[in-house]
Design goal:
This protein is an alpha/beta fold and 902 residues long. It is 44% helix and 17% strand. It is built from 35 helices and 34 strands. An eight-stranded mixed β-sheet has the order 15-25-24-17-18-19-20-16. Helix 4 packs antiparallel against helix 5, helix 5 packs across helix 8 and helix 21 packs antiparallel against helix 22. The longest helix has 22 residues. Bound molecules: phosphoenolpyruvate (PEP) and magnesium ion. Magnesium ion binds next to helix 31.
Length: 902
């Protein structure tokens, strides 16, 4: 643990720097860095994340020496500002904010205007010559402090509607009504002074304690509340969703207050150095004249665009900062350029203009949508700001998912009933049923319903519902409101500031432009344009290939990755889709679904219930032409690339789970007595079918199945080869646990290949290999590799058989395992590298001991999971194979694995 607890910043110098994020949190590290860069930052200090860890490890006590360090830094701040904390004639006021390593927008607490007391307010009035402003600041402090420090942090859980913040807001509304005014700004200094007295009494009556009238007491109260909020409900929820470790802790930033609400020459704003929704390289942001930062972020006032370029149809009538304060805008624009050039990444900045002077309050790497991440990475690389490797590392593989997200069908959209317009906060389209609370959203979604969460403004308490919803719609708020930030971080369709909505949560209804909609009614959002439509409009898939930024990034990924990427596909359409996404072959073609086609299932059933080999062969051969056609289609779709076709795998009884009526029909069709048929079906029943008569055990017991499938594959290969189509089939035997099993099947396959080549008088290449999906197969991989020409790890079954968890029934206990941290994540989604991974590594090692250049891949679900792909890279696999829509993710993850590990 570091022994320095407090880091000063300001006046062109700082104790910390950008690299110290772990210790100072993102915000603190960047405030230090900005100070070092000479950007105007109000001076302050950061209390480290180590203190947070200490605080929780030691029964919520602070380490010795913290107090002295805080005092010392406070003194430096006072010197820079020429003010004094708690001084009645010239008071320093500070803000107290959280700041974790990774941004957690709105999830923890903030207190502003700390240091205002009945004494110091006199000095503030004198200094600003603005009594109204001073009392406005005071009533804001009382509201925030009583809510955050005296209520939430003290663990008080008020009854519905009785929270101190709500009660104080109620008093404010009452006064506005009394004075017959609409806006807060219309209340006079005298009104606010009276309100402060009312507030203090309300605080005392409700919380049983006086509002603290000592600046130091306020400071420590605020610091404690921020540390407490690290373990607040919404912060914990957010960490769970984002995978942020609980041990990281938050830093606390104490910083000189600057005011954007000191009159018309003051303002505040939030901006991005590039557009965070589209990635376009234009300075993009929002501002409000005469306002505090929270007014922009909380979404209580819809903000103005920062510049003329940023105006849209909906905001063109509003004043930009560029036109209202051109000199300050120029200064801000120069700073944003400096920051982006320094950090080499898009920055999310907060600024305040106090009485004509610009202050930067924050800079951090800006959250962005997937398409924006790709565009920025590509454009920054093309401009020489970053190199290809950095560009590749800038995009989270999962963000590519957003490219694959559907959009509202543009044709249908033209004639759809538009209910309202709002701000396009998160791209793509979404449709669902209206729900009005986050809890309802989560609950309905759990039942498999598609929902859209509609709120006035989404508070951080709504995170779980926002996560569960298809899309989010709010009546208030701007592009930088909390709702917009969170949705964008997830790449979720979201519209904010849709002011035409009149929402009545109590009766679960909303009215909008003369229409009344209730809970459960369908609406559709176009989050890219900010349009809300009535009803359920169809969504269409986006056109990836035509996105030049995506293509550049994928070209760089191809250049840097070592792993091949194939796809798991069972139909020509899926194969073609995956190929368009960049798949380099098929790593797993499961053949079982092909048998479920109504035209084929009866031949399959006839085969299964046949009493002898002759009848079985007769039945199975009926399937040959169908299978040949299947393979022709798939091999052709993957012309020039390898196609791994797996022989039949599932337990036979899956094909004969029949009700009484179906048994009757089948017995008539096959001319078998109903009772005989039933007896045969019963005999196929297994207690543990996943460990039963499946995989290569089928082909061993019924060789005619293997023969038929091999013949279908090779006849298709021969025919295509004669037509000049280049195909590379790889026949794969499932669920092998010993070299004898494999050998048994391989001989049949090779024999069939020889026969077909003779019969058709064509020569062709093919491989015969095996799935490695049982622990024993890993243990004896050296023996299996004597004749197996390739391995493909079936990590679904390998996970099942290594853990002894049934892959179909894990849902019964997995949530508990995750809650109790017995497992870090679902091992069927992300490979258990410690356990199952050892078997994979052993299989690779042993396989290569026997056959140095044996081709090895993975085709379990893990083939599309970035962390597992990293493991596959490190373990020396040749390729991963995943479902078509995960191919882009795998391509990028493979490149990232190469960049990170080599
Ligand atoms: C596996 O077990 O990982 C695999 C790919 O096969 P299946 O999921 O079809 O059992
Ligand atoms: Mg399997």
């Amino acid at each position: 643990m570091s022994t320095k607890y407090v880091y000063f910043f300001g006046d062109g110098k700082a104790d910390g720097k950008a690299e110290m994020k772990n210790l100072l949190g993102g915000k603190g590290a960047n405030l230090a860095e900005m100070s070092n860069l000479g950007v105007p930052v109000p001076p302050g200090f950061t209390i480290t994340t180590d203190v947070c860890t200490y605080y929780y490890d030691n029964g919520k006590k602070y380490p010795n020496g913290l107090d002295a360090e805080v005092k010392e830094s406070l003194k430096k701040v006072e010197e820079v500002m020429g003010t004094k904390f708690g001084d009645p004639s010239n008071p320093l006021l500070v803000s107290i904010r959280s700041g974790a390593r990774q941004s957690m927008p709105g999830m923890m607490e903030t207190v502003l205007n700390v240091g205002l007391t009945s004494n110091t307010i006199k000095g503030l009035i004198e200094k600003t010559n603005n009594e109204r402003f001073a009392y406005d600041a005071y009533r804001r402090l009382i509201t925030m402090y009583s809510d955050v420090v005296m209520e939430k942090s003290a663990g008080i859980e008020p009854a519905e509607g009785m929270a101190i913040r709500e009660q104080l807001e109620h008093e404010l509304e009452k006064m506005k009504k009394d004075r017959n005014v609409q806006a807060d700004t219309e209340l006079t200094a005298e009104d606010l002074k009276e309100l402060v007295t009312i507030y203090k009494k309300k605080v005392k009556d409700t919380l049983g304690k006086d509002f603290p009238d000592d600046a130091m007491e306020q400071l420590w109260g605020g610091i404690g509340a921020v540390f407490q909020s690290w373990n607040g409900k919404r912060a914990i929820n957010y960490r769970k969703i984002e995978g942020i470790p609980d041990e990281w802790g938050t830093a606390v930033n104490v910083q000189t207050m600057v005011f954007g609400n000191m009159g018309d020459s003051s303002a505040t704003g939030v901006a991005f150095t590039r557009n965070p929704a589209t990635g376009e390289n234009v300075f993009f942001g929002e501002w409000l004249p005469n306002a505090q930062g929270e007014d922009v972020v909380a979404g209580t006032r819809t903000p103005n665009p920062i510049n003329e370029d940023g105006k849209t149809e909906d905001t063109k009538h509003l004043d930009s900062l560029e036109s209202k304060m051109p000199e300050l805008y120029k200064q801000l624009d120069a700073i944003q350029k400096k920051l982006e050039n320094h950090y080499h990444d898009m920055q999310d900045i907060e600024f305040t203009i106090q009485d004509g002077r610009l202050w930067m309050l924050q800079t951090r790497t800006g959250k962005r949508t997937g398409p924006a991440a790709v565009r920025m990475a590509a454009e920054m690389c093309n401009a020489g700001l970053i190199d290809e490797k950095t560009a590749l590392m800038r995009v989270k593989p999962s963000q590519l998912d957003e490219f694959l997200h559907p959009m509202v069908d543009p044709e249908e959209e033209k004639t759809a009933l538009e209910l309202a317009k709002g701000l396009p906060a998160g791209p793509g389209g979404g449709h669902g049923m209206i729900v009005f609370t986050a809890d309802d959203a989560a609950e309905w979604a759990k039942k498999g319903k598609q929902v859209i969460l509609v709120r006035n403004e989404t508070s951080p308490e709504d995170v779980h519902g926002m996560h569960a919803a298809e899309a989010i719609l709010t009546a208030k708020g701007g592009m930088t409101s909390h709702a917009a930030l969170v949705a964008r971080g997830w790449g979720k369709c979201c519209i904010v500031g849709c002011s035409a909505l009149d929402i009545d949560v109590a009766s679960k209804k909303l009215s909008v432009n003369g229409e009344v909609l209730k809970e459960g009614d369908w609406i559709t959002l176009n989050g890219t344009k900010g349009r809300v439509y009535k009803g359920k409009l169809p969504l269409v898939e986006p056109d990836l290939e035509r996105n030049e930024f995506y293509s550049s990034l994928m070209n760089w990924a191809d250049k840097h990755r070592k792993l091949g990427v194939r796809t798991n596909a069972d139909s020509p359409a899926d194969a073609a889709q995956a190929r368009a996404f960049g798949a380099e072959g098929i790593g797993l073609c499961r053949t079982e679904h092909m048998f479920f086609d109504p035209k084929r299932i009866s031949a399959m059933r006839e085969m299964i219930v046949a009493e002898n080999e002759e009848n079985r062969r007769k039945a199975i051969m009926k399937l040959l032409p169908y299978q040949r056609e299947d393979f022709m289609g798939i091999l052709k779709a993957m012309e020039g690339l390898p196609v791994t076709i797996r022989l039949l795998d599932p337990p036979l009884h899956e094909f004969v789970t029949l009700d009484d009526k179906q048994v009757k029909e089948l017995s008539a069709e096959l001319g078998i007595k109903e009772s005989d048929l039933k007896a045969r079906i019963n005999s196929l029943h297994e207690l543990n079918p996943m460990l039963g008569h499946r995989g290569c055990r089928l082909g061993i017991a019924y060789p005619e199945i293997t023969e038929m499938q091999a013949r279908a594959i090779f006849e298709a290969t021969a025919d295509l080869t004669s037509q000049g189509v280049k195909v590379f089939p790889e026949v794969m035997v499932p669920l092998v646990g010993s070299s004898n099993e494999f050998e048994n099947q391989r001989e049949l396959i090779v024999k069939t290949a020889d026969e077909v080549q003779k019969e058709k008088n064509v020569k062709f290449d093919y491989l015969v290999g095996t799935m490695i999906e049982l622990p024993r197969a890993c243990l004896v991989a050296n023996e299996i590799a004597k004749t197996a020409e390739f391995f493909s790890f079936g990590t679904n079954d390998l996970t099942q058989t290594t853990f002894g968890f049934s892959r179909d029934d894990i849902g019964g206990f997995l949530p508990k395992y995750l809650d109790h941290k017995i497992l870090p994540e679902d091992p069927f989604q992300s490979l258990d590298q410690n356990g199952v991974g050892q078997l994979v590594a052993m299989g690779v090692d042993k396989g290569r001991q026997t056959r140095k250049d044996i081709k090895i891949g993975i085709c379990g679900e893990h083939g599309g999971d970035p962390a597992s792909i990293d493991f596959c890279h490190r373990t020396g696999l040749n390729y991963v194979s995943c479902s078509p829509f995960r191919v882009p993710i795998a391509l990028l993850a493979a490149a990232q694995a190469a960049i990170e590990n080599d």
